UniProtKB/TrEMBL annotation:
Bilayer topology: Multi-pass membrane protein
Domain ABC transmembrane type-1: from-to ranges: 68-259
Taxon lineage: Bacteria, Bacillati, Bacillota, Bacilli, Bacillales
Record SUPFAM superfamilies: MetI-like
PANTHER family on file: BLL4140 PROTEIN
UniProt-recorded name of the protein: ABC transporter permease subunit
Transmembrane parts of this sequence: 9-32, 76-96, 108-129, 157-185, 206-225
Amino acid sequence: MRIRKQQVLLWMSVPIMLHLVLFQFVPLWGWLMAFKDYRIGQSLWKADWVGFKHFKTLLTHDEFLQALRNNFAMNLMQLILGTLSSIALAVVLSELRSKNFVRIVQTMTYLPHFVSMVVVANIFVMLLSPDGGLINDLLIKLGWIDESVFFFGKPTWFWVIHTLIITWKGFGWGAIIYLAAIAGINPSLYDAAMVDGASRWQRVKYIVVPSIMPTVILLTILSIGGTHDRRIRIAVPARQRDQCGLFPGHLDPGAQIGP
């Protein structure tokens, strides 16, 4: 009887269930590739079973530890800078009085989130290219450098550029939740602080930051699992041999973890 009453809801859930089955559960068969000698164009079922051979190749490679270190270090840099920049933007926007200016800033900072990471990476690759790149040309004309610099070919520069690109792309979107958390703070706390003579900075330090800290912790934990795969998208157009990192399902000189 209960099922009959919920028929409409059940039929409405059919598209979602189909999406889950087709795009979430069926692709799980791809995990078998890790244990087979699979070649593109070959049937997965006809590929030879090799067990843990690929894992052994990865773990015993001379540069595996360097790749692992780079992977965690870049994730940590991205996580820290991204979180702090999102919080800073949210706090600044919440303190501004001009609503029109706030809307303009929000729009400008949110838009990069909707641009494909591959597109963003290609844009910066062209801007920083040693062959006619805008940044190199500008630095040469200003006299700051004598010859073009291959930024993506230098490990130190790549770490910095990668972190800044990821942060620029996502900090505006991340600020949305922090703005919502700030909006949920009890106004009486601000009133009490103003009565006690607290400055704007003191109100931010002693009211805003402690109040949004549970949200910060939660989003940081949720972000840990999503930082790893972003580098695979930025490395597609910018891949060089000295960019040593671990990419999911990726084993080539660009990651320095395999032939």
